[in-house]
Design goal:
It is a single chain. About 30% of the residues lie in helices and about 20% in strands. The protein is built from four helices and six strands, in the order E-H-E-H-E-H-E-H-E-E. The chain has helices at about 15-25, 45-50, 60-70, 90-105; strands spanning about 1-5, 30-35, 55, 85, 110-115, 120. The two termini are about 35 Å apart. The model has no long low-confidence stretch (mean pLDDT about 85).
């Protein structure tokens, strides 16, 4: 799943996803589609709307692991700073991950998710 990829009328989603993957030095064959209904609106709120996620399908789990391992480098790419990659999760996995994310919001320490658990370390400010 790819989040934060800007959405435009009449866009080439496949081309945009290929550009993202090229920034990661990858060229896998992918099938892509936007998730959700693309409600067309001409009002001001259409610019403020969050872009819909993109479902990216690749041939093997090895490619998925490679893409996800390189996803952290997108924050250094000027055109893709707001683009995030996430593994496709089942409903149960999403609920469990949501609980872990809520645990992350505790002040005072640096928290991150590792191996389906929240790990905390002291902040180095």
């Amino acid at each position: 799943m790819l989040f934060g990829l800007q959405e435009e009328t009449g866009e080439d989603v496949s081309g945009k996803v290929s550009d993202v993957l090229l920034q990661l030095n990858l060229k896998p064959k992918v099938d892509v589609c936007r998730i959700g209904s693309g409600v067309q609106s001409t009002s001001k709120d259409s610019a403020d709307r969050k872009p819909r996620p993109v479902k990216v399908t690749v041939a093997s789990s090895a490619i998925v692991k490679e893409v996800l391992s390189r996803a952290k480098y997108l924050k250094n790419c000027s055109g893709f700073r707001g683009v995030y990659l996430s593994p496709d999760r089942s409903v149960e996995q999403r609920a469990e991950h949501r609980k872990l994310v809520l645990e992350l919001k505790q002040p005072g320490k640096r928290h991150f998710i590792k191996g389906n658990a929240v790990v905390s370390t002291e902040k180095n400010d």
